Structures are given as structure tokens and as C-alpha cells.
């Protein structure tokens, strides 16, 4: 099978490629080719027997998606997108990439007459405050960011194009991915990963919100697991409501720190400095806390069941199993 | 004040124009000008002191919306749209008019820096089956038609553009408008009006579904009332969830016929011939039945409270108060 991945140079894209190459197949079908697209050149994996090709450019450019779809991918992972903060800061860029890029990709598929499976990464940003304590699967969509609006519009297109038989789509609403590897970034949600990642690298981390803040997480490994599982399930089981809220671990920040302490010891956890930032706290207070995710669990999507497992996944996948010697 | 109306040649547009001209003002502000746009030339009203201008063309054409917004309307009624059946039959036309036309209008406003009030007619087609017996205001949006998908995307844009302060928007989800004046059309919902309108004109009407079918209606007069009220309410009272399900009268088809019988007599009601059409019934079974509409009622939107009033409104507004002599 041929697999197209947009956003292939991003964190989730790179991890998905790694898993696909390791597995060599999806749902029992051998992977013959990977077409990897991003705005910056995606790295080509070393994989015997898999023909990998890099495509670099803007999905919203005239003809860009047509060229990708002309290669007749059997499976399309549409991961490309401008992140929340950037979509809020740059209105035009967000709508161009997240809405127009998505629509152009979907329309290129529609007009090709080819009917691949399409897995689209959406986000819990399709929900808007105020929230119940646990957000049910049928909670309504009233996004409070341009990013969430663009993801909601992508979800609506995905469901309509699937209903019409242009492709077979599944929308995957990712929770916060934690522990996000790499350097700290300026996202308001960055600290959720930072307070685990930096101490495990022997460095200080700032916690800008109270320990009582509740948030739902899944590891990068689970995010990849969602994407693989979405490609293999029988979509008749999903029915017309094609967009699914993924499971995750709902914990307080205090519980996150307890997990870090259990796994890496109190000296590592002591590298977290509490410096409250009212701006970040104000943003985080409008974020959803816990999700029911019954539909996705019933469909066989699985995530970690404790935050300890999320910390452990980071130690195994990013640190070669090594803890800092403190 | 200057008012722009798109879809001005449509049924709701024409009735809105009639009301605006009769009132001469909206929310206490004198109407100085009406800019009337449609794909076919809208009729200009006779109205002393109101400068009316007709614009004909496709809203999705390059430059079309910019020309309208350059006139700096204080209030924009965006009623233009391709109807449900047409949007389903003609995929490209539906997305072009209902999505691209709406986005171009909203973007023309955004880029003008002018900040009008914008009233957008959405639809209960943003909801998709299966439904609870009464659909609450926070029911989620899983449309099952391309029309409903396009309206949902328009609603999402309206909320985001309002949140960002580009304009001050209100989305009005209309129930089925009944009694729709004019000739019978081929819409699957056509019989809801037809079984009242044709007998009141002394003609036979076909009822293609069982009398037990439940549906929610509001008169054309109420639809215009929603649009006027939306222009006058303080949108701070609405908050960020800008799209409102309007109230209406939820009745069985049997109760519709009972109203007709009470108002026009059994001989008129006997003009309804029951000829079941399994295709129409199959479509109608996926339609929502009743709505809570608590938010809109609390905000002062009002509709008829009985189907008798809906029949009476038709007799008064379309038949000069006259019943057929049977």
C-alpha cells in the first residue's frame, strides 16, 4: 500500500513514520511507499523495501494536493496544520493552512475519483468553555479559538465527504500530547510537558499554574497508536459521526508531579519551580479537563491508564530508559 | 442606517424588506438605505425616504462582496443560499454559494475594518439524526446533508469572526417556515406547507406521510420577526455562542390538519388526499421533531404558540383574510 502523510516533519508525523517503518505494514497490508509532505523538507526514513519520497511546499498552493493525490495513496494521514497559538496570532495563515489546505486536499481526493481512507488529526479545541466536569462524546462544538474553528470546519468537511463516499474518513480529536519531546516552546500548554521533560533531563522547569489544575494527556506513543488503529478499524462501526474524541489520562498537575517523583525520585521532582503566571492560568482555566471518550474506547482506541505510564513512555522512547543521576 | 440584504429576492428576503419598509426603522434607528442583493434582480420597494439599490450577481464572484461592503452597511442580513435539495444535488454549487459566498462576505467585512451587525440565517439542518424527543440548545452538530454542513461552517465562521471583533454576528437557526406562500415545490418538506396552502386556495393537496409525523414550524411573519429582533438585541447577552435555535410550534401533521379544519372547515380539510410516499417518509424520519429553544426564548425571540395561529397568519398575510367558499 501507498501512504501519504501531510505534516510529515512534525513531531507526531515523525513518530508515525518511525512506527510504520518498524511495522512494515498497516492492518496486515505491506507498506510499499511513503509519500511525505511538509512545508519544510521531511526526513526520509531508512527502510528496506519501502520507497519513500519527500514533497515540500504549501498544501494550499494551486495544484499541490492534486500532485500528491495523483499518486493514488491508499491511506492518507492529514496531520498538517498551524498550531493553536500561531493560528490565533496570524489569522490569514491559520485559515489558509488549516481550512484551505484541508479543503484542497479533500477536494483533490474527491475529484480524483480515487477513494482512500483519510485520517485527520483534529483537536479538543473544537470544544469551548464553559465545560461540565467530564465532557461527554456528544458535547456540542463551540470553539473559542480560530484554530478550534478551523478544526471544526475540517471535521464537518470530513464527515460530509465521507457520507458522500468521496473517501472513508476518520477524525481523531487528540488530547494534549505529553510528554512532548524536544525544546520548550512558548505554547501556553508547554508546561504540562516541560515539568516532566526538563527535570528528566536534569534541568529546572517552571510550573506557572496551581497543582490543582486538571488536564487530559496521552503520550506521543498513544497518539501514533490512535492513528494506526484508525486506519485499521471498519468505519461502518463508526457510522456517520466520524469525529472521535480520543481517550487519555485526566490528572491534576500535582498527580503529574507525584508520578515523576515515583519514577525518578524527589530530587528530580524538586527541579520544578512554582512561579505562578496569571496570564497562563487565565488561558488554562478555559481549557477542558476530562473527557468521557466512550465511543473511541468502545471502538478499541487505547491510551495510557495512569500518568506513571506516560512518564515511563517518555523515559523509554526519548531517554533510552535512563533516569538522571541526581 | 444602511442595511444590506443578500438573498433579497427570496421569500424571506422579500417579506423582510416589506416589514423594514413598513416600520421605517430598526431598533429606533431610521432606515436611510437598503442595498438589495441576489442572483436574480431583487424588486425595489416603494418607500418614501428610503434609497433602495438592487445588486445582481454571484456573491462568490471575485470582488462582489467587497463592492457591497464598500457602501458601509450598518446592518447586514445574510440570507443568500442554495436550498437543501439543490445543495445535495449539486455539490459544487452548494459549497460555492453557501460556504464560499458566506466566507467572502465575512472576509470583505473583516478587511474593510467596518464593524456592522451581521444576521445570518442558518438552519436546523446543522443537527443530524438520531435525535432525542426534544432537541436541547446544546445538542451537538452532526449534519447529515451538505447543506447542513455548509450552514454549520458558516455558523463557525460567524462565531469566530464575532469573537475576534470583525463584526457583531448572530446566527438564526430557522425551523421549517410554514405556510410557505407560492407554488408547490419539489422539496421533501414541501407538503408541510402544501397541505395548508393548497386547500386554502380551493385546491387538492397530497399528504405523503402518516398523520403522526411531528415537525416544528414558524410562520414567514415569525421568521421576519426573528430577523428584526436579532438586529436589536444587545449581543453581550448572547455571549460567545452566537448561533441560536429559534422557537416554533411542534405539532403532528394530524394537528396541522385539525387547525385547518377549525379555521376553514371540514370541506377545505377534505381536499387533503393521503397518498403515502415511502421515499419522502424515509427522508422525513431523519428530521428533527421538537426543539427546546430556551436560549432564544429567554433572549426575547417569539414565534406562534399554536398551529392555528400559523394558519391564521397565512390567511391574513397571503389571502387578505378570505377563506375559500366551499
Can you put this structure into words, describing what you see?
2 copies of one chain form a homodimer. By secondary structure, chain A is α/β, with parallel strands linked by helices. Chain A has 2 domains: 173 residues, 3-Layer(aba) Sandwich (Rossmann fold), CATH 3.40.50; 90 residues, UDP-galactose 4-epimerase, domain 1 (Alpha-Beta Complex). Chain A contains 12 helices and 16 strands. In chain A, the strands form 5 sheets. In chain A, strands 5-4-1-6-7-9-13 form a 7-stranded parallel beta sheet, with helices on both faces. In chain A, strands 10-12-14 form a 3-stranded mixed beta sheet. A two-stranded antiparallel sheet of chain A has the order 2-3.
How many helix segments of chain A? Answer: 12
Q: Which structural class fits the helix and strand makeup of chain A?
A: alpha/beta
Q: How much strand content do the residues of chain A show?
A: 15-25%
Rounded radius of gyration of chain A (Å): 19 Å
Tell me the strand order in the biggest sheet of chain A.
5-4-1-6-7-9-13
Low-confidence stretches of chain A are none
Overall number of domains of chain A: 2
Question: What is the architecture of the largest domain in chain A at the second tier of CATH?
Answer: 3-Layer(aba) Sandwich
CATH hierarchy class name of the largest domain in chain A: Alpha Beta
- CATH topology description of the largest domain in chain A: Rossmann fold
Q: How many strand units of chain A?
A: 16
Largest interface, C-beta closer than 8 angstroms, per-chain residues: A-B, 21 and 21 residues
Q: Termini distance of chain A?
A: 48 Å
Helix amount of chain A, in percent? 25-40%
The CATH homologous superfamily name of the largest domain in chain A equals: NAD(P)-binding Rossmann-like Domain
Gross geometry of chain A: globular
Oligomer: homodimer
N-to-C SSE string of chain A, H for helix and E for strand: EHEEEEHEHHEEHEEHEEHEEHHEHEHH
Largest sheet of chain A: 7 strands, parallel
Amino acid at each position: 500500500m501507498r501512504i501519504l502523510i501531510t505534516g510529515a516533519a512534525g513531531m507526531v508525523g515523525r513518530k508515525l513514520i518511525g512506527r510504520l517503518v518498524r511495522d512494515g505494514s498497516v492492518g496486515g497490508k505491506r507498506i510499499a511507499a511513503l509519500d511525505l509532505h511538509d512545508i519544510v523538507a521531511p526526513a526520509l526514513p531508512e527502510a528496506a523495501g519501502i520507497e519513500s519520497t519527500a514533497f515540500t511546499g504549501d498544501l494550499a498552493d494551486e495544484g499541490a494536493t492534486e500532485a500528491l493525490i495523483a499518486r493514488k495513496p491508499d491511506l492518507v494521514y492529514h496531520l498538517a496544520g498551524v498550531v493553536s497559538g500561531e493560528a490565533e496570532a496570524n489569522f490569514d495563515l491559520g485559515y489558509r493552512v488549516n481550512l484551505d489546505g484541508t479543503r484542497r486536499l479533500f477536494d483533490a481526493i474527491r475529484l480524483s475519483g480515487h477513494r482512500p481512507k483519510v485520517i485527520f488529526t483534529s483537536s479538543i479545541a473544537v470544544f469551548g468553555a464553559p465545560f461540565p466536569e467530564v465532557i461527554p462524546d456528544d458535547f456540542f462544538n463551540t470553539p473559542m479559538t480560530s484554530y478550534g474553528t478551523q478544526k471544526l470546519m475540517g471535521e464537518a468537511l470530513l464527515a460530509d465527504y465521507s457520507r458522500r463516499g468521496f473517501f472513508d474518513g476518520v477524525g481523531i480529536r487528540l488530547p494534549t500530547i505529553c510528554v512532548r519531546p524536544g525544546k520548550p516552546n512558548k505554547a501556553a500548554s508547554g508546561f504540562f510537558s516541560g515539568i516532566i521533560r526538563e527535570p528528566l533531563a536534569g534541568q529546572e522547569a517552571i510550573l506557572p499554574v496551581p497543582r490543582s489544575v486538571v488536564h487530559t494527556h496521552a503520550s506521543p506513543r498513544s497518539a501514533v497508536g490512535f492513528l494506526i488503529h484508525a486506519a485499521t478499524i471498519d468505519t461502518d462501526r463508526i457510522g456517520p459521526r466520524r469525529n472521535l474524541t480520543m481517550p487519555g489520562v485526566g490528572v491534576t498537575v500535582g498527580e503529574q508531579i507525584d508520578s515523576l517523583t515515583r519514577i525518578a525520585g524527589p530530587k528530580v521532582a524538586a527541579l520544578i519551580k512554582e512561579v505562578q503566571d496569571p496570564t497562563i492560568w487565565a488561558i488554562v482555566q478555559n481549557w477542558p479537563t476530562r473527557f468521557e471518550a466512550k465511543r473511541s474506547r468502545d471502538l478499541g482506541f487505547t491510551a495510557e491508564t495512569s500518568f506513571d505510564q506516560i512518564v515511563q513512555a517518555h523515559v523509554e522512547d526519548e531517554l533510552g530508559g535512563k533516569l538522571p543521576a541526581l
